[in-house]
Amino acid sequence: MAVEAVVWDIGRVLVEFDLARIYRDSIPDAEERARFVAEVVTEDWHWQHDAGVPFAQMVAARSAEFPQHAARIALYASHWLDSLPGPVPGTHALIERLAARGVPQYAITNFGVDAWEMFRPTYPILDHMRDIVISGVERLVKPDVAIFDLAVQRFGRAPETMLFIDDNAANIAAAQALGWQVHHFVRDPVVLEARMQALGLL
Question: Which of 150, 179, 167, 139 is nearest to 48 (CA)?
Answer without folding.
Answer: 139
